[in-house]
Amino acid sequence: AGCGDRSGDATGSGGGKPLIGVDYPRSDTDFWNSYIKYVPQSADELGVELKTTNSQNDIANLISNAQTFMSQGVKGVVMAPQDTAAIAPTLSQLESRKIPVVTIDTRPDSGTVFMVVRADNRAYGTKACQFLGTKLGGRGKVVMLQGGLDSINGRDRTEAFNECMGKEFPGIKVFGEATDWKADVAASKLQTRFASDPDIKGVYMQSSFALSGTLQILKQRGLQVPPTDPKHVFVVSNDGIPEELKNIGGGLIDATVSQPADLYARYGLEYAKAAIEGKTFQPGPTEHGSTIIQVREGLLEDQLPAPLVTLDGAPIGGQPTVKFDDPSLWGRNA
Amino acid sequence: MSETLSTGKASAPVPPPTRPPSRHLALARLRDLALVPAIIAVAIVGWIISPVFLSTDNIVNVLQSMSEIAILVLAQTIVLITGKMDLSLESTFGLAPGIAAWLVIDPALTRGLGLGLLPDAWAVPVVLLVGALVGAFNGLLIVRFGLNGFIVTLGMLIILRGLLTGISGGQTFFALPGSMTYLGSTSWFGIPASIWVSLLLFAVGIVVLGHTRAGRALYAIGGNADAARAAGIRTDRVLWIALIVASVLAALAGLLISGRLAAVPAAQGDGAIFQVFAAAVIGGVSLNGGKGSVFGAFTGVLLLFMIINVLTLAGVPAQWTNFLNGAVILVALVVSRITGGKAQT
Amino acid sequence: MSETLSTGKASAPVPPPTRPPSRHLALARLRDLALVPAIIAVAIVGWIISPVFLSTDNIVNVLQSMSEIAILVLAQTIVLITGKMDLSLESTFGLAPGIAAWLVIDPALTRGLGLGLLPDAWAVPVVLLVGALVGAFNGLLIVRFGLNGFIVTLGMLIILRGLLTGISGGQTFFALPGSMTYLGSTSWFGIPASIWVSLLLFAVGIVVLGHTRAGRALYAIGGNADAARAAGIRTDRVLWIALIVASVLAALAGLLISGRLAAVPAAQGDGAIFQVFAAAVIGGVSLNGGKGSVFGAFTGVLLLFMIINVLTLAGVPAQWTNFLNGAVILVALVVSRITGGKAQT
Amino acid sequence: MSATPHRPGGGPVGEDRPVVEAVDITKRFGSTLALSGAGIMVRPGETHALVGRNGAGKSTLVSILTGLQAADGGAVAFDGRPAPPLADRDAWRQRVACVYQKSTIIPTLTVAENLFLNRHARSRSGLIRWSSLRREAEQLLAAWSVEVDVRQPASTLSVEQRQFVEIARALSFGARFIILDEPTAQLDAAGIHRLFTRIRDLRAHGVTFLFISHHLQEIYELCDRVTVFRDARHIVTAPVAELSRQALVAAMTGEDVTMPEAGRRPLTSDAPVLLSVRDLVTSSGAELSMEARAGEVVGIAGGGGSGKVEVAEAMVGLARPAGGTVTLAGRVLRPGSVPDALAAGVGLVPQDRHREGLVPSLSIAENVTMTVPDRVGRYGLISPARRDALARDTIADLTIKAAGPQVPVSELSGGNQQKVVMGRALANDPQLLVLITPTAGVDVRSKQTLLGVVEDVRRRGAAVLVISDELDDLRNCDRVLVMFQGRVVGEMAHGWSDNDLVAAMEGVDLHHV
Ligand SMILES: Nc1ncnc2c1ncn2[C@@H]1O[C@H](COP(=O)(O)OP(=O)(O)OP(=O)(O)O)[C@@H](O)[C@H]1O
Ligand SMILES: Nc1ncnc2c1ncn2[C@@H]1O[C@H](COP(=O)(O)OP(=O)(O)OP(=O)(O)O)[C@@H](O)[C@H]1O
Ligand SMILES: [Mg+2]
Ligand SMILES: [Mg+2]
Where do the TM regions start and end (chains B, C) (predicted)? Predict the structure, then answer.
């Protein structure tokens, strides 16, 4: 990297608006597509100019895209590295060029970033566990449809879910099934589980990808009955896409975790803009209802709220939940 | 200059046959049944690991979860027998129902995801039509322009998957019309329709490829295309038809799985082609054309899915399932090499 | 149709000196350079779209981001020229550095991910050794047991990927020793070392395949293995070596990218094989063996990565990049068909 | 004349050690016994012929004598010393050079590289010196007056040029012993002449040859002694001069095959014209106009490159003609359509059975009935019983040696495969039978069977076209059209003399100079 001073000159940014490079992590899930949709909207609102790339869930692409951003002379970068270990060299390269980085959804294992904007994935797993454990009264069998083993977020959810179950609901038996984030794999593994253990009472899906396949299986087995019926199978999903909210309203599933796709887009860009403008932040509560924590030296994290959404909005295990038709949910406005 | 032999009809009697006349037939049949012992062995192992394995519920489950991939295997078998290959089937599998959903579903219901251009009744015809068009386009490039089938369909695999991502914006199509979900989700006589459909298609495949002139033409072309042409087989036309039929089958398989999931994820079928090839080859279909049977292909896919099911029931640690899956494929390959008895081609 | 005419005893009624004597040579050379106009065209288009495209910075970026895949393409080219194929290269790409990291890194530093069995200095030798072992195992099954290369390496692709998932539990290995990260992250004379390494390997490949008996033996085997054997070439040994060299190259490429990432993700190389095949074939390497050159393969991979870079610079909407990528591959194929002038094989 | 499992040969052995001696060689391929206690002994300086029917084991012996394959049993010795180990290819190549029956040209490589494969000229650095390699190649080919650019890929060579490249390469090793396995099968008369001159030359310099051919006259023309194989065994070795043609053929076939010429029924002059070809022009420029009447056998002769095969292929739809019409029994055939030709009643034996004649992986029954699906089933369905019945008839009619209709064609010997091709041509009871080089690579016995069929077909009132440059194929024709450089240059009635026909095929008209 011989010509680091290029990013200092004025080319690249037009009309005084700061130029920010946003790398989308992938475009094949509903959640990230919502994010992709929100980013330009937020950029308009914040008055920043955008360069976007898509790394298709491949870290090598992300590195090359970061290079491209540098060539294009962006002043700040927003990215969502799905691999939190392998991003370190790129971060130090961006740092050496004095380009601030905001990461979305994941926290790099090492290296410096200006701000991490994420919801706590471990909290997702814990919330789902609390919900299912409470609803099942601490007994029975549940299936956890994991994501891909190579995803940090998936692993966080799995670990937290298992941990919480083991600690708080030891009477519940958990079947963990790896699905590679694939709907058909999830469907057939769930079906196999129902064949071997017909008395399964709960399903935790780590992402909405498995949503309709799961519903079909329940329907096929005649288990789509209201929660009052003893045959009811409790289903917790994750993401908070509109389809899930609709299904909660329809009584087809029981809860989901609403990942704040809109807030990811908004605060990712806002922090990048702030960094370019030279602002700094301190740990503590923010004005948008979240908390900034210091994870380690030189790494701040703004933990956005990721509420558990339920039919009635009643608290679970002492934690508040949000009613499925709450207008503050991003899935309501998508 | 010439030999002094006069010509005339040879009167030598036919020498006594050196081997029993039916041996070849028997051998050919045997090759069809090569996997049956393995299937029985897996069934026994599965039953020991978990008695649930042989329950009706679980058997139906295995058959249903393999039904869509099995149809893809059938499609690939047809193409492989002609000596070509079609990698793009895995993308057609997702694209065909994806396009139908895109054209049919109401944007009002799905926040702008569909176009709502066509009435619901068009959905299934559109699925099949997309399949036919993809097959025809492959045919255009492979048969007409003489491009290499592997690389054409590799390009098509990428392009069709990209097209599905493009129209869906990477999202999942929900709220499919009833006509699209019917086949994949209904049951006939207590058994899911997709099982009936796939078994029926295999039965038709066995009859057509084994006992009709069109089917035998596929083998002739795969065995020696020039000779087939010299024998009056319209090789180009047969190849086109084979490619189109395969794509339509892939579209149909996609319809079944979309019906089962009541949705079309943008990644539908992603990576399935590896499994499809493995099943076909383990089932005895040659990658060089002209060899293999539909029944063999069926046993191949059945074996694979039984093994996956056993691994799931056994509760193998998630991180090792892929490894075991690959190991099983490799072992099946080596075993079929030993039973087959000669260098595979 | 006319191709049915031309072979056989009486090939042409009029004796053949109808073509200028050096045309074939010129054509062969031309085929090596076939992609150069396309590369120039893309460079111009890229420059129009974004002047950044031709900046040193961006050119280095393109070369660096293609360097590892380019080495995979070189490896695949070697195997393809012998008339085989090796799908498992994409898994070796991840597995070889993965195993080295697993054996070397200290579990204390990485929450128990590594074994810390070997000292750091062993890391690079282990990477290359794993590559050699994978190649030797492929050779055992393909050359020794006569199994079909496509399906053996397909099985290996799945199994090796599964092995990496197994040892890593799907997690990313990080905190790699300096010996593993050096080559992928250092710069020589202001240019990243991985660019130097890949260019050097291609130069060696050009000399070896074009100007040594060993290299020509690869072409002879790919063109007609029996004839090569009759000419005294030890075909089996050469095939083994080709498979081993290819796997070692893949391992080295994996080492480079791991060095660049300072980590080994469990999915490293996943899906890369499609791109590798596309680049090799666009670069004029035949899937049937015996044809193609290392330089051509290089132009193929260069063209692909330039186009990807242009699409990125142009800010094509994310959901359409895959589609455009596929379209580009297909178009490149059709173009190389036209410049190549005859049915591809 | 029973098999002698031990040391073969007769006559006095000279003081020289034999150049090569193979004793009691046995070789098995699966269930096929290719060689069974066979042997051969070749003396220095002689030209030794090896003859036998298809599948007698000749080529198998060649591959053992050149170290390509190991024998299951027996011993090979060169100059009295045991043969080198199989892995030491260089040692083998010093002792023996060979033109194999199966082409060992690599089509994707240049002519020059084919000539010097694995022995490229190298500089001191170990890199190949392409320029000197090319020069050497040019010199080598110039000696054979093969005029090709050595830089072009071998795939562009004509079959004949390719054969000469093989021969030139084999002779360029400087070996003192050279094996030629059917080198003349692909050459025309001029080419054969060139080859023979060269062989005599080398023989004068003391080079020893082992020569394999199905053309017996070549044996008498060239060779000193002959060894006959039959059914994988050594039958006899004798000086050529001491073995009459009769005796030679009898040794090969194990029976006396001379038969009286079948009563040739003269053509009735009022037989209707069945086939009429008008101004047919092929895409390569060959032209033909002709007629054939019912029951007539018309030969089309010509050397390599005369265009005879092209016109025949254009006639039956295998290739699309550039112009002209073909009318069969009043029906104009659609140009370039094999299905239409079949429907009109054309039966075809294509030139190369491996390329266009057979689907080797399929059974005899499927191959024979491939052109007549209508006759073995209805509504597109095939009745295996009817198919096998039809195939069994063909197997009996043509005396195909096979265990049954289900045997894959790939397991048949060459001659039997050719009979299957003939069976396929006859399956639709053709009105016009077109035979393109129908006996290429077929032994004398099978030739008789195949040509006998022609007689049957003409008796049924069909017309037959025989396209060949083998005189034996043409002998039974009512008349022979001779083509040269794409034009018909002469016509000869039945009873032509060999010399006249050969001269005409070479473009020399002996009578009308
Ligand atoms: N590689 C092989 N595998 C199986 N069988 C073989 C193989 N090579 C030869 N054979 C069989 O061995 C026998 C002898 O074959 P060979 O090629 O030596 O005959 P040939 O005398 O050269 O015949 P032709 O005159 O047709 O060339 C035949 O039955 C043949 O089918
Ligand atoms: N490659 C092979 N594999 C299996 N069986 C073979 C093979 N080649 C030949 N055979 C069988 O071996 C037997 C002898 O074959 P061979 O070629 O010696 O016949 P042949 O009597 O010489 O016939 P022809 O007169 O046609 O030359 C035949 O029954 C044939 O089917
Ligand atoms: Mg024989
Ligand atoms: Mg032979």
Answer: 33-53, 59-81, 93-110, 122-143, 150-176, 188-209, 238-259, 271-287, 294-316, 322-340
Please compute the mean of the pLDDT values over residues C41-58 and round it to a whole number. 88
Domains of chain C and any CATH numbers: 29-340 (1.10.3470)
**Using the 8-state DSSP alphabet, how is residue D305 labeled?**
T
Which tens digits make up the pLDDT trace of C248-302? 999 999 999 888 888 888 888 887 888 898 899 888 888 888 888 999 999 999 9
Q: Is B324 on the interface with A (CB under 8 A)?
A: no
The residue assigned the tokens 């998932």 is: C165
Query: In the structure, do chain B and chain A come into contact, i.e. share 3 or more CB pairs under 8 Å?
Result: yes
Of residues D369 and D378, more confidence is placed in: D369
Q: What is the CA radius of gyration of chain D?
A: 24
Buried b (16+ CB within 10 A) or exposed e, D46-83: bbbbbbbbbbbbbbbbbbbbbbbbebeebebbbeeeeb
- Residues pairing with D78 in the sheet: D20, D81
Q: Using a CB-CB distance cutoff of 8 angstroms, which residues of chain A are in contact with residue B313?
A: 192, 196
Q: Strand pairing of D432-436 and D346-349?
A: parallel
Same domain, D213 and D340: no
Nearest ligand 1 atom to alpha carbon D30: 4
| CA distances (Å), origin D233, targets B144, D4, D5, D19, D227 | 51, 8, 8, 21, 11
The Cα of B123 is separated from the nearest Cα of chain A by a number of Å equal to: 19
Residue D335 lies in a domain: yes
Question: What ipTM was predicted for this assembly?
Answer: 0.80
C102 Cβ contact partners less than 8 Å away, ≥ 6 residues apart: C113, C114, C115, C167, C168, C173
Tokens of C298: 């290089």
- Considering the domain architecture, whether residues D83 and D179 belong to the same structural domain is answered as yes
Residue-range definition of the domain harbouring residue D238: 20-104+175-253
> Considering only CA atoms, which residue is closest to atom 1 of ligand 1?
D29
Q: Is residue D131 part of a domain?
A: yes
In a domain, D200, yes or no: yes
pLDDT digits (tens, 9 = 90+) for B199-249: 999 999 999 998 888 899 999 999 999 899 888 899 999 999 999 999 999
Query: D409-440, pLDDT tens digit by residue?
Result: 888 877 888 889 999 999 888 999 999 988 87
Q: What is the pTM for the complete model shown?
A: 0.82
Q: Report the distance separating Cα B280 and Cα B255, nearest Å.
A: 21
Give the CATH number of the domain where residue D30 resides: 3.40.50.300
Among D25, D27, D29, residue to substitute to test ligand 1 (most atoms within 8 Å of Cβ):
D29
From D404, D424, D444, give the residue that closes a domain.
D424
Please tell me if residue D131 touches chain C, with a CB cutoff of 8 Å: no
Residues D378 and D341 in one domain: no
> Phi and psi dihedrals of C25, rounded to 5?
-60, -50
